[in-house]
Amino acid sequence: MTGPRLVSILRQGSHLIASVHTALDDTQMTAFQHDLVDRIGRDRSRGVVIDVAALDVLDSFATRTLRTIAEVARLRGAVTVVVGIQPDVAFAMVSLGMDTGALHTALDLEEGLALLDRIAGGRRPAVGARGGPA
Amino acid sequence: MVRRIVAARVDDAAMADDLVQETLVRVLAAAGRVDAGMLEPYAIATARNVVATAWRDRDRQRRNQHRVVDLDTPDPPDTELLASEERAAVAEALARLGDRDREALLAHEVSGRDTRSLAAELGSTPGAVAAQLHRARARLRVEYLLARDHTEPPTDRCRPVLLALSSGDRRRQREVEAGRHLLECDACAGLSQPLLDRAPPREDAVRIPVDGDGDVVAARQAARELAARLGCFSRTDLTLIATAVSEVTRNIVKFAGSGEVVVEVLEEPRTGVRVTARDTGPGIPDVERALQDGYSTYAGLGLGLPGARRLMDEFAIASEVGRGTTVTMTRWCGER
């Protein structure tokens, strides 16, 4: 990766906090997906928070990538929460017709971590029971 | 006497003065070599020569103004060669104009006749003459470029497209589908560059060439910026527009590999932005199906086209198998 970091992945206890700092193109988005899934295995994480507050657009590809990450993470035993979706971005995602039912979401980082503690904190849960057609 | 001769041929007083001076200098310089009795005819001949030279220089300068491409101080050895090629190209381009166009153009540009006197002579109006001159110049530029490169346009559609670009007539450019043609025709894409460079940069439109993933982001950001400048879209509107642009641009990258996205501001019938996404890729065999939710030929969500349609106020798609796809979509200010 050259230039300023586009994404940072930090470890916090048994959780990972992944922040996207700037708009990513599809290739960068896919690279992010691979990095994150790698880290989940390496750090034996139980929860992942993905902060997308910096993104001004979440189009079909970005949404699909988030869903894929969540699903892959679930299969690897981690819960994923997406936080920081801007109100207008949320509106655009709905208008676009994207099915995001399988994604856990929270308003911001704090709420996201609290949610993770609730669902992943006690025992390793059966998250994603709603299964999503990723 | 010298002044009379010069003034009869030159209507610009300042220029006439200069030429009179130059003539006198030459006559004085030659005074020692010429018989006293022959000095008068010598002066007359010199004056004529000086005037003729001045005209030639001025001609050349005027023609230079019409060169679409300027030669910037090339290497001295080939200067002369290049200049002669330039002259040949300009001469050939002039020869290819219609007689009426050429005469009008030369009368106006070389002889310095104004449109009013030309109009009176032709039994026309100054406005009509100006329009004719405008068309003639546009054609001259195109013919000059063709003559310079010693090429003939490869297809019947090339000349109309190049002419429309040369004249800067946007309606005409749309009629002849200029943008699409430039994607298809390499010859025209090359030839048109100086014509496009000539046009003043448009404040109200951006064109984003699309070649890869990164351009998806570039296109949606450019669209958002342009739309934001209008001041009538809410933040949500801007995001909807950017998302729609993202979807159609990704389709270009996925299916055609390359193409272009043009975002322009509309004033009529209302204020809004129009996005045109164009490629010369494989085309969509079944447009109806492609517009249905969940139809996808790659592992996508199948939301690209139908989703983009929902995000915009107007949406049109024209696709031809083997020729490519053009998506045009518009969002108006103050709807919804």
Automatic annotation (TrEMBL), chain A:
SUPFAM superfamilies: SpoIIaa-like (SSF52091). It comes from the Bacteria. The lineage of its organism: Bacteria, Bacillati, Actinomycetota, Actinomycetes, Geodermatophilales. This is RsbT antagonist protein RsbS. Pfam families: STAS. Residues 5-116 form the STAS domain. InterPro entries: Bact_StressResp_Reg, STAS_dom, STAS_dom_sf.
Automatic annotation (TrEMBL), chain B:
It holds the Pfam family Sigma70_r4_2. Belongs to the sigma-70 factor family. ECF subfamily. GO terms for biological process: DNA-templated transcription initiation. GO terms for molecular function: DNA binding; kinase activity; sigma factor activity. InterPro entries: HATPase_C_sf, HATPase_dom, RNA_pol_sigma-70-like, RNA_pol_sigma-70_dom, RNA_pol_sigma70_r2, RNA_pol_sigma70_r4_t2, RNA_pol_sigma_r2, RNA_pol_sigma_r3/r4-like. Residues 236-335 form the Histidine kinase/HSP90-like ATPase domain. Keywords: DNA-binding, Kinase, Sigma factor, Transcription, Transcription regulation, Transferase. SUPFAM superfamilies: ATPase domain of HSP90 chaperone/DNA topoisomerase II/histidine kinase (SSF55874), Sigma2 domain of RNA polymerase sigma factors (SSF88946), Sigma3 and sigma4 domains of RNA polymerase sigma factors (SSF88659). This is Serine/threonine-protein kinase RsbT.
